Amino acid sequence: MQDETRHGDLLVILRHAPHGSSWLKEGLDVALVAAAFDRRVTLLFMGEGITALLEGQQAGPLGQKGTAPTLAMLEMYDIDSLLVEKRGMESLGLSDEQFMLPVQGVDADRIAELLASHALVLNF
Amino acid sequence: MASVEIYRYISLDEKNIPLDPEGFLVDMEDWSPEVAERLAEEEGILLSEEHWEVLRVLREFYARFEQAPAMRPLVKAVGQALGPDKGRSMHLMKLFPGSPAKVGARLAGLPKPTNCL
Amino acid sequence: MLLHTLNRSPLSPVLDQALAGMGPEDRLLLIEDGVLGALPAQQARYASVAGRVYALHEDLASRGLLGLCDPTVRVVDIEGFVALTEECERTVSWY
């Protein structure tokens, strides 16, 4: 698993929460396009972006689509390398049992390594 | 939500059904098997059971994930639902020539897949 | 070596994300609101990357901060920004 993440060529960092802005959605769209073109994609959830993984999300109050169905769909695009910044999880008081998908926690000192080891890094 | 721009109509049972410039339904609710047959006709496709089972996979995909699949996830979804023999791009190319993800989505009454050519 | 640009003030949690993303040789360029981080009183926040912090002249000038920068922060103009992007392999922006 660790090895796979090192060799994946696109790293998409998701740092924005669902519903509040379109950054998360745009980051996920980029990841899907890349995967549709056979790029290997790793997602790294940091800060508020971690809340995108929570179970039980819904559409917005005016019926705006949420991002949970897109996260559920990642598997169909063979995007299965999902990393989460441990520090961000702690600061929000969340644990991976509350997440809708299996994730791998990443220590703060490994994040710089991830950025350095991917040929392409897109920050959302 | 499908595109709102109405480009033309197909008429079926005295009802006019709006299509967008690329031939996708403007209102997904307008879809019916008869609509699918009419749209298929425009592509020169006569829908067989093999087509229908793929269209059902597409509609289930959309119901679950709220997006039409690109080619790669479509192949995977068809493979999971109908077996590995059918979960191959060759099979889908034969059924829906050109761009199976796009043509399939159109006939299944879904919006155009956003992340495909 | 990567160049990281940051347009958020030192009070933003985005600073911590940028710092977490920085390798031992990487450079940090402060732009827009990020240039508030050039103030001497904020330097403890940037301790882990001390000596590798740059701030954009134009954004400091427009905020009246040009004369108030900590001496360890290197002030660069747009040309200096371009030079930095050339020196570094890739650029990652934090916002």
From TrEMBL, chain A:
Belongs to the DsrF/TusC family. GO terms for molecular function: transferase activity. It comes from Halomonas alimentaria. This is Sulfurtransferase complex subunit TusC. The gene is tusC. PANTHER family: PROTEIN TUSC. Keywords: Transferase. Gene3D superfamilies: DsrEFH-like.
From TrEMBL, chain B:
It comes from the Bacteria. It is found in: Cytoplasm. One of its GO terms (molecular function) is transferase activity. Keywords: Cytoplasm, Transferase. Its main location: cytoplasm. Its EC number is 2.8.1.-. Part of a sulfur-relay system. Belongs to the dsrC/tusE family. NCBIfam families: dsrC_tusE_dsvC (TIGR03342). This is Sulfurtransferase. It comes from Halomonas alimentaria. The lineage of its organism: Bacteria, Pseudomonadati, Pseudomonadota, Gammaproteobacteria, Oceanospirillales.
From TrEMBL, chain C:
It comes from the Bacteria. One of its GO terms (cellular component) is sulfurtransferase complex. InterPro entries: DsrEFH-like (IPR027396), Sulphur_relay_TusB/DsrH (IPR007215). Keywords: Transferase. The keyword Membrane does not apply. One of its GO terms (biological process) is tRNA wobble position uridine thiolation. GO terms for molecular function: transferase activity. PANTHER family: PROTEIN TUSB. This is Sulfurtransferase complex subunit TusB. It comes from Halomonas alimentaria. The lineage of its organism: Bacteria, Pseudomonadati, Pseudomonadota, Gammaproteobacteria, Oceanospirillales.
